[in-house]
Design goal:
With 208 residues, the protein is mostly helical. It is built from ten helices and no strands.
């Protein structure tokens, strides 16, 4: 059913571990809402990947990739959402109330897990590059003549499991580090993650 599964796992590990919008969002939401919100963000992101996996298996992702107007509209919507989240983080960092908000975050949950999950889901669904990944790269690891629908689902499941494990571990580590951060250090990280999210959004908007 599969062509060189070990190579697929290796490629997936590189794709998952390279820092990007998902990483920045995990850091921001974990510091804002604690470990539970960070893990919820990871679950939302993987939920988006699961949707893209199913879309690729059904052939819908290929249709999306081939339709430039639809692809471009989704790309711009995803970029706008990343910029919106980044501006929220920057506003928090530079707000006069940021010191009090940081204490609230450390105590437990200015950002509720359900909201964090929704942000993770929407940010991933708004990233059409995931569709391109499943349409252009993943099928190369499917053996000719096999059930491509089932094979793509299995490979997508492997990718999702690896992604969830990595992002959850990342959220836990960030939460541990966040317990040591106070005041200016916390605001500086808010500013950095906000800037990164805005930058990722603008890069997504201009990419072709």
């Amino acid at each position: 059913m599969f062509e060189n599964l070990a190579a697929f796992v290796a490629v997936s590990a590189v794709v998952i571990c390279v820092p990007g919008p998902d990483t920045a969002l995990i850091v921001r939401n974990t510091l804002t809402g604690g470990r539970r919100s960070g893990i919820a963000t990871a679950v939302g992101i993987i939920g988006g990947i699961a949707v893209w996996t199913l879309a690729a298996a059904l052939g819908l992702a290929a249709v999306l990739s081939a339709s430039e107007p639809v692809f471009r509209a989704l790309q711009l919507a995803g970029a706008a959402y990343l910029v919106f989240l980044g501006l929220q983080a920057l506003a928090s960092a530079f707000s006069r109330r940021s010191g009090r908000l940081a204490r609230v975050s450390a105590a437990g949950g200015r950002l509720e897990p359900n909201r964090a999950l929704r942000q993770g889901l929407l940010s991933n669904l708004g990233n059409p590059k995931i569709a391109v990944f499943f349409v252009s790269l993943v099928p190369q690891f499917v053996s000719p003549g096999s059930d491509s629908f089932l094979a793509l689902l299995v490979l997508g499941g492997i990718f999702s499991a690896m992604g969830l494990a990595w992002l959850t571990l990342y959220a836990v580590l960030v939460a541990k580090a966040g317990e040591l951060l106070r005041g200016r250090a916390r605001r500086a990280i808010d500013a950095i993650t906000g800037t990164l999210l805005v930058a990722f959004g603008f890069r997504m908007a201009v990419e072709r």
